[in-house]
Design brief:
Structural class: alpha/beta
CATH class of the largest domain: Alpha Beta
Shape: globular
Order of helices and strands: HHEHEHEEEHEE
Distance between the termini: 80 Å
Radius of gyration: 22 Å
CATH architecture of the largest domain: 3-Layer(aba) Sandwich
Largest sheet: 5 strands, parallel
Helix content: 40-55%
Amino acid sequence: MKKIRYGIAILTIAFFLSGCTTGSEGATTESKSELDTEEVVFTSVSAEEAKQIMDSETGYMILDVRTKEEYESGHIINATLLPNEEIGEDVSDILPEKEQKILVYCRSGNRSKQASEKLVKLGYTNIVEFGGIADWPYEIEKTE
């Protein structure tokens, strides 16, 4: 009888220990990316660094990944709207060049990171994420 209780106790402990290890895998989006076989790589810069790129380079695209309503309430000049939720398997109608530098922002920085990761997985190779418009100290425009 003691052997049966001992065996049940060991199985119970093993069950709980195995449950603990699987839950820690992929706790955040970043750690999931590190565990995937293909590495998701994009550059993150500050608003100031993004502005410097906009002032000194050409051929880039500014991508606003907020909702249409957020975009219309105020967006960075020359930004193109592509809501994060709409980034799926094919965005080539809005982003035809996979090598083009694409500067990505949202409201606070969360959706811009998600969108940047999605774009890299779709094969875009020059993604620069710069957080949110909440931290943008420069001029914006409203859609009337």
